[in-house]
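Hi, does anyone understand the following?
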Amino acid sequence: MNENFSDEKLATVRSNSTLLVVPLFVLGVSSALFIFLTARFTEVLQQQIILAVSALVVLFFWFFPSLRYLTNRTTLTRNRVLVRTGIFGTKQQSAAWGEFTGVSLQRGFFARLMRAGNIHLHREFGVDLIIPRVPNAKKLTKELERFLATRSGVGQ
């Protein structure tokens, strides 16, 4: 029998969408430069070089960051926390709620302005599980603390 069959999904958390501001800016600038430069250079070889350079810039500075944003996610279920990271979401960390002893929030100055941050789920033994760049991080941290308290029987 599948272990995840009775595992009810509570939420899926993605990173803060402000991570896409720089890639979208790079896409716009590279597109504008491509249009501007291809009109200036008339030889086919020059236009092909401009096309190749533009394609590489768009690939590495827009497509891959956008793909990383779309494939990285955290799934919260009744029994487990599943964090998928990596360029295609292939790296996976999973832990049962019973392993966690506490929750904390870590964020810098700019993350505080955007109300985002990294949520650390503390384990009694082992390395903390980190949910990276969460929007509305303070609210989610409080919800996770309340969920952990009800699971452990404290505060009922």
Notes: The longest helix spans residues 44-71. The two ends are 32 Å apart (CA to CA). The chain has four helices and seven strands. The CA atoms of residues 17 and 69 lie 8 Å apart.
